[in-house]
Design goal:
Protein name: PEP-CTERM protein-sorting domain-containing protein/MYXO-CTERM domain-containing protein
Largest sheet: 6 strands, antiparallel
CATH class of the largest domain: Mainly Beta
Order of helices and strands: HEEEEEEEEEEEEEH
CATH topology of the largest domain: Jelly Rolls
Keywords: Signal
InterPro entries: Ice-binding_C
CATH architecture of the largest domain: Sandwich
Organism: Janthinobacterium psychrotolerans
Radius of gyration: 23 Å
Number of strands: 13
CATH superfamily of the largest domain: Protein of unknown function DUF4465
Structural class: alpha+beta
Strand content: 35-45%
Number of helices: 2
Helix content: 10-25%
Shape: elongated
Amino acid sequence: MTILRTAAIAAMFAASAAQAQQTVINFNALEQPGILGTVIDSYSEAGYNFDNSLWYGLHSAHQDSFAYAGSAGLGATALTTTTLTRADGAAFSLDKISLADYVSVLPGSYDVTFVGTKAGGGTVSQTFTVGDSHSFSDYTFTGFSNLVSASWKEGLLHTYQVDNIGANVSAVPEPGTYAMLLAGLGLLGFMRRRRNAA
């Protein structure tokens, strides 16, 4: 019984130590009135960095623009690649994303492919089909965990915006957390020995 209790307490400590810090990147800082959009070189929010393969290749449509999708979002120049990383270099996971048409030459739906680079090597990819509506739709990532970066490429005839990116990074346990775990396990072991001796 005591061994089970010890295992349960150790599991609770481990779970709290590895608890994820969840974030939704919503690009609200880019939302502005006006017709002309914002053109930027890079963008940072909540500890995540967005960079583009073209100098000043990132875009955000303003509220009166035909490309405005009802919320602030981040788009990019045609045929460029946008890359998402953590500012502190930590590994992260992607859970969800909202996508909307930005500027498309042709009507109709089109595919958008996201590629994640894993911390231990290798990649994972997932393709979503986006309609030509200037409103955001939600999509869910599968297997996009333990990433050091994620990237996506704009099309030539279709470009799109991203919004409400659900991301999380596993918290690094503080040294005090390990000390508390070891002290708790030691105390439980001492109590078990004392009980067995009685």
